[in-house]
Structures are given as C-alpha cells and as structure tokens.
C-alpha cells in the first residue's frame, strides 16, 4: 500500500497526522471497494455457471423424456401392426 503524504510546512503537526489518517482511511476504503468489486464479479460468474449447468441438466432431462416417448410410440406402432 502506498501512502502519499502532503507535507505543508505551515501546518501544525496534529493537522498533518489528521491528514495522513484521512489519506490512509481513503486508501483502505478504496482497497476494500476494489476487493468487493472483484468478489462481486466472481459471484456473478459463478451464478452464470450454475445457471448454465441448470439449463443443461433440464435440457438432458427433456431429451430423455422425448426419447422415452418416442420409444413408447414406436413400440405401440409395432404392436398395432
């Protein structure tokens, strides 16, 4: 973490400490926001992967039902001949 200190000789020592404290807090907040944004991006990517996996699973289930129905229809067709 880089801390920039703006030293003005006319400032009191206490004012400089207060300024450093505000700069440090700002850097910590900026870092925290950046990390939260990265986590949110990762969460959204995981949600998208789960959504796609669910769609694929449903699609396989529907395909399986279609194949079963087709087999039943074919069997009925053969039996009715």
What does this protein look like?
This protein has one helix at residues 13-80. The longest helix has 68 residues, at 13-80. The chain has a domain at 47-81. It is rod-shaped. With 81 residues, the protein is an all-alpha fold. Helices cover 84% and strands 0% of the residues. The mean pLDDT is 80. The protein is built from one helix and no strands.
Question: How would you describe this structure in keywords?
Answer:
single chain, 81 residues, mainly alpha, 1 helix, rod-shaped
Specify the helix fraction band: over 70%
SS field, number of helical segments: 1
Sum up the overall morphology in one term: rod-shaped
Order of helices and strands: H
- Please give the number of β-strands: 0
Structural class: mainly alpha
How would you summarize this macromolecular structure in one to three sentences?
With 81 residues, this protein is mainly α. The protein has a domain at 47-81.
Layout: helices, strands, pairs:
Layout: H1 13-80
């Amino acid at each position: 973490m880089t801390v920039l200190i703006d030293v003005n000789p006319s400032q009191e020592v206490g004012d400089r400490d207060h300024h450093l404290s505000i700069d440090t807090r700002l850097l910590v907040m900026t870092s925290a926001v950046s990390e939260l944004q990265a986590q949110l991006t990762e969460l959204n990517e995981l949600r998208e992967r789960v959504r796609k996996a669910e769609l694929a699973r449903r699609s396989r289930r529907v395909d399986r039902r279609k194949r079963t129905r087709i087999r039943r229809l074919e069997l009925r067709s053969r039996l009715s001949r």
